[in-house]
Amino acid sequence: MNNWFKKHERLITIIVIAGFLAGIVWWSVATYVSSRNPATTSQNRDTLRKEDSVLVITKDGIDLDYPYWIMKSEVDNITQQQAQIYQQYYGQQLDPIFDYLTLDNQVVDLLFDEKIVRYYAEQNDLLPSKEEVNNQINTQVDQYISQYKSDESNWDNMLQYYGSEQNIRNILISSLQQTVETDLINSAVKDAVAPTSREDALAYIEQNFESIKNDYEEVRVQHILLSDEATANNLKEEIETGEITFEDAASLYSKDTSNATNSGEIGWIKHGQYEKSFEDAAFNGQVGEIIGPVQTSEGFHLIRVLDKKIFEHPEDVFLYDDVYAQVRNTVQDQKYDNWLSNYKESENFGRNYYDTKLMYMYELTKAGTDVERLEELAKELESIVFEGNEISMEVDSDYLAVYTMVVSQLMGLYNEQTTSINQYLSLSEFVDPDIVSLGLDAINDKLEELNAQSTTDVSTSLSGEISKYQDAQSYLSSKEALEALGVSTTEDASVMRAELQTKSQDYTEKLKKVLADLYAQYPSSNTVVQLYYQLNPQDPKVKVSYSKLQLDQLKQYASYLGSQYLFSYFQQQITEILVNVQTVVDATQAATDTKLEALDVGLDLTDLLGLKEIKLSYLETIKKIDPNYYTNIDSMIESVQKEIEEASNSSTDTSQIATQSNIQ
To answer: Which residues contact 357 (CB under 8 A, 6 or more apart)?
Structure first.
């Protein structure tokens, strides 16, 4: 989920407003109003306090006045709003711990940049007037109202719910106020700081011509799908001689019923949407030409190109206003992003956090792969999270989550370093020193030459030579990585490996305690369950929770794959669930409730997969553990036994018929 908000942030407002007024999310505008206008909440502008903010933006180390504060209520409301949209967009809820922290951090980043841009606009007299904002709002409201009135039934429902058209207009005006003002500011600043000329666009097109062709080229085609090549050739001849039109032929003979009655027209297609043979024929064909037969996995196609949008040269992009506009926007956005990054640095803007956990989230993001900084963050957080060797009774669960993220990132880097060390130490014992002496660049060139030779030469000697060069390549790569960490000898590498192992073990023990506490508070958190299961798979309760998680995933796949295919694709997960259920049932330390919960998971799985014998075993085990767990346990057992017996008899009957047939 981490990148979802950044990826879709420009669509958020559209989804919120349009979704609400389409009757999808009736609550969203009101939430959006409060989220984007903190001064309209219970706090008014005069009573806002820095202490109620997440952070205050600073310049040259000095706090700026409001509105250059990011209020906690503002962040909370926007985060809740985006969580609702995420649930609608993907049909899933955010993780109650980790996802909300990540989203809060992303919202703060977005608002920070938004307010920096506003600061520039204010300093350079680029703020829109009230009249400009109101005019733009009224224009958009008129467009929305016109759109919603086009669906008479939905419009009647809205009028009934909100009382009048004016009430709907008022809600829209309120919800659009902040958005329109921000958009006008961004647009004015973007035009001022990132003017984009035709020459700028052409330079970008020339540098990215192949990707632009792939993204924007398209052809409009008709096709007729036939079962064999001979029929396709005969029909093509009839069309070319005028015995039948392409349109009539599509209607009468095409196997593709989705468009046969529409003259066989598929519409505009882009690169990568169809099989390569079909795509190549369509993009290389001339307008009006009948192409084919072209074979695909579906059959044989006759294709006619109706129109084309093809770029032979970079300048051709300018022939299409829509494509040029998109390319120009891309170039301007890149220039604008670069300007904003430089402006924040050159003007010395900073962050004075009033929310410590979000400060740590920001520092975690900034740290990236800096091991030393991550270790510092972990140490700082340990003073908050732990009291002695145990979890502090006063610690907020958010700090446990931040600590988990910091340590997980740190241990991932430890694992990478350990892998490089192991590779370096193992290869140093037998790598060919003469090949190593050539250097990495020469080895890479030689490997490219040998790999090309291997396409025609499959001899054992060539394979052995390739292997030697690959070992030397891996050795030098790991050696370079370790030298960057100050390791230059095998002795140093061995010492560092031991240190990493000690650190990893220490963090693992601490993380177990943190995740155990989080699991006790949030057993519904999928992330907590997965992380805790990885560190402590012997805990019966987390074993059951993890199995439930896997089962839910299998059910999702079964909904569109069909349960009969689950064994083919998910055998490992299915086996793991079955093993986990049995180990929990057999575990002497597992509570009775936990065992029964595990057996319930097992029953769900056997129903999903049709494993009747295993289901019978689970039901019999449940009866032994608690005969009253299911009030109808005996009838359940009897029903499954009957199903197994009927399946066995059916199998016997089929076998007997086959045997008699063979005898005859």
So the answer is: 101, 396, 398, 399, 402
Residue 482 tokens read as 């370790």
- CB-based burial, 545-580: b 16+ in 10 Å, e otherwise: bbbbbbbeebeeebeeeeeeebeeebeebbeebbeb
Query: Are 450 and 462 in contact, with CB atoms under 8 Å apart?
Result: yes
pTM of the model: 0.79
| 8-state DSSP, 287 | B
Contacts of 234 (CB under 8 A, 6+ apart): none
Q: Which residues contact 636 (CB under 8 A, 6 or more apart)?
A: 619, 630
Phi/psi of residue 254, nearest 5 degrees:
-70, 135
Token digits of residue 206? 């020339």
Pairing state between β 390-391 and 299-309: unpaired
Instruction: Give the mean pLDDT of 115-142.
Output: 95
Beta bridge partners of 304: 222, 290
Check pLDDT > 90 for residue 379: yes
Tell me what the pLDDT averaged over the chain comes to.
88
Backbone angles phi, psi at 273, to 5 degrees: -85, -25
CA dihedral 535, 537, 539, 541 (to 10 degrees): 110
Element (H, E) at 158: helix 152-162
Q: Which long-range contacts (CB under 8 A, 24 or more apart) does 246-255 make?
A: 246/222, 246/290, 246/302, 246/304, 247/222, 249/224, 249/302, 250/222, 250/223, 250/224, 253/224, 253/226, 254/223, 254/224, 254/225, 254/226, 255/225, 255/226, 255/227, 255/298, 255/299
Spatial CA neighbour of 38 closest among 48, 30, 29: 48
CATH superfamily of 1-38+51-194: Porin chaperone SurA, peptide-binding domain (1.10.4030.10)
Nearest by Cα to 423 from 466, 476, 370: 476
| Domain residue spans of the chain | 1-38+51-194, 218-310, 355-507, 540-662
Pick from 420, 422, 410: nearest CA to 504: 410
Q: Using only C-alpha atoms, what is the Rg of the chain?
A: 33
Going 412 to 417 to 418 to 424, the CA torsion angle's sign is positive
Answer yes or no: is pLDDT of 343 > 60.
Answer: yes
Architecture of domain 218-310: Roll (3.10)
Distance, CA of 462 to CA of 465 (rounded, Å):
5
pLDDT at 662: 39
DSSP 3-state of 337: helix
Q: What integer is the mean pLDDT of 516-545?
A: 93
Q: Return the amino acid letter for 500.
A: L
614's tokens: 């295993």
User: pLDDT by residue (tens digit) across 463-482?
Assistant: 888 998 998 998 899 888 88
- How buried is residue 104: exposed, middle or buried, by Cβ count under 10 Å (0-12/13-18/19+)? buried
Q: Output phi, psi for 227, to 5 deg.
A: -85, -25
Residue type, 224: I
285 three-class SS: coil
Q: Work out the angle at residue 442's Cα, subtended by the Cα atoms of residues 439 and 444, and round it to the nearest 5 degrees.
A: 105
**What is residue 550's three-state secondary structure?**
helix
Residue 476: CB partners within 8 Å, gap ≥ 6?
436, 439, 440, 443
Q: Report the 3 state secondary structure along 162-228.
A: HCCHHHHHHHHHHHHHHHHHHHHHHHHHHHHHCCCCHHHHHHHHHHCHHHHHHHHCEEEEEEEEECC
